[in-house]
Amino acid sequence: MDSRLRLESLVKSYGRKRALDGLSLDVRSGEIFGLLGPNGAGKTTTLKIVAGLVIPDSGTVEVSGIDAMRHPDRAREISAFVPDQPTLYPKLTGREFLRFIARARRLDPASSESRIGFCEELFDMQGWLDARAESYSHGMTQRVALSAAFLSKPDLYVIDEPMVGLDPASAGTFHRMCRAAADSGSAVVLSTHTLPIALRICDRIGIINGGRLASLVETSSIGEEGLEKLFFELTGTAPLDAAGYFAAGSPLPGIG
Ligand code: ATP
């Protein structure tokens, strides 16, 4: 299978903080790939580097064989990025925003109208896609932003925390869109904090810790319990017992 994204030895520091410490990764055509990691592990930094929004100190990024550092415009043309908090233009309607993106992506008007109509139906946006974006909830904004990513059918989708704010039907649609995009030869790279979602949606998972790839897992080879155990082992994190906080004599006013 062709490589859609190849990251080699990425290093990125913010001041003294090293966010990425030699991260390497290869995502192939046809894959849905999930990035998992504890808070501050470097997931968003990685995705922003792929999107060309953050410049690494060293390392390389290739999108479908194109050196994204040397040819950022060419890499952007064949990829789509959705941040964890997408923003639309508040005074434009969702449909106007999607038309704007379609024009920027140089889609011909007939294809863009038909794809916008498709997404409108798939993400159940009838009834509000012609309202101004300033009136949208987070989940509605997310549905328009995801539709914008799917408009141009890029080689690579880069999506930060896609499920946050989506209702169950939209989450299901998003999953099906990703699967169909991957089946048509694209690759989807997404980050999530939710292990069951990663298991359900992704073909492979990369666990990141301290700016490095700690493990690569085929989701078909592991269950939820196994993934949780591996995640906690590799990242040195674990939920602590909170019962003592609410026990008799606890420091909470009015309790105990
Ligand atoms: P989360 O799961 O909490 O969203 P993450 O895995 O996406 O975390 P990043 O946002 O990539 O992690 O952050 C990695 C490290 O880089 C963290 O220590 C964070 O504090 C730091 N960092 C990220 N962006 C900046 C910035 N603009 N300035 C300074 N430090 C930053």
List the helices and strands and how they pair.
Elements: E1 3-14, E2 17-28, E3 32-36, H1 43-50, E4 58-63, E5 66-67, H2 72-77, E6 79-82, H3 94-104, H4 109-122, H5 138-151, E7 156-160, H6 168-183, E8 187-191, H7 195-201, E9 204-209, E10 212-218, H8 224-235, H9 243-246
Parallel strand pairs: 3-8, 3-9, 6-7, 7-8
Antiparallel strand pairs: 1-2, 1-4, 4-5, 9-10
Helix pairs in contact: 3-4, 3-5, 4-5
Description:
With 256 residues, the chain is of the alpha/beta class. It has a domain of 166 residues: P-loop containing nucleotide triphosphate hydrolases (Rossmann fold). Helix 3 crosses helix 4, helix 3 runs parallel beside helix 5 and helix 4 runs antiparallel to helix 5. The longest helix is centred in the last third of the chain and has 16 residues. The model has no long low-confidence stretch (mean pLDDT 94). The chain binds adenosine-5'-triphosphate. Adenosine-5'-triphosphate (ATP) binds next to strand 2 and helix 1.
Which short descriptors sum up this protein?
36% helix; 4-stranded antiparallel β-sheet; alpha/beta; 256 residues; Rossmann fold; 9 helices; binds adenosine-5'-triphosphate; single chain; 6-stranded mixed β-sheet
